[in-house]
Design a protein that fits this description.
This is 6-hydroxynicotinate 3-monooxygenase. GO terms for molecular function: 6-hydroxynicotinate 3-monooxygenase activity; FAD binding. It is an enzyme of class 1 (oxidoreductase). The protein is mainly beta and 104 residues long. The protein is built from 2 helices and 4 strands, in the order αβαβββ. The N and C termini lie far apart (52 Å). The mean pLDDT is 87.
Length: 104
């Protein structure tokens, strides 16, 4: 097998990257101490929030806290992304159903 040298390799092949594994070996996931919540809601449900129909980026009082919102589908829906610090993560999946009762 011929060995090639490059200054930069871009492997845009997903979270389970075969390119990264080929270059650096297998890695286990490491918890960063930050969890994220994502949702798409009807803009009608959040229209009381000032400027919700614009792109919003909010930073909290710690680097782990942030909220990003932006309109979708001709402003009929709003995408919401939020992060918060958390000491541990017990879920065994990249995705988990949630609701307002689970939101810290």
């Amino acid at each position: 097998m011929e060995r090639l040298n490059y200054d930069t390799v871009i492997g845009a092949d997903g979270i389970h990257s075969p390119v990264r594994t080929a270059l650096f070996g297998a890695e286990s996931p490491r918890f960063t101490g930050i969890v994220s919540f994502r949702s798409v809601v009807s803009t009608e449900k959040v229209k009381h929030i000032p400027e919700i129909e614009a792109f919003i980026k909010w930073w909290g009082d710690t680097p782990q806290k942030q909220i990003v919102t932006f309109p979708l589908n001709q402003r009929k829906e709003t995408f919401i992304f939020a992060t918060i610090g958390q000491e541990s993560w017990t879920e065994k999946s990249w995705t988990s159903a949630g609701g307002s009762s689970r939101t810290p």
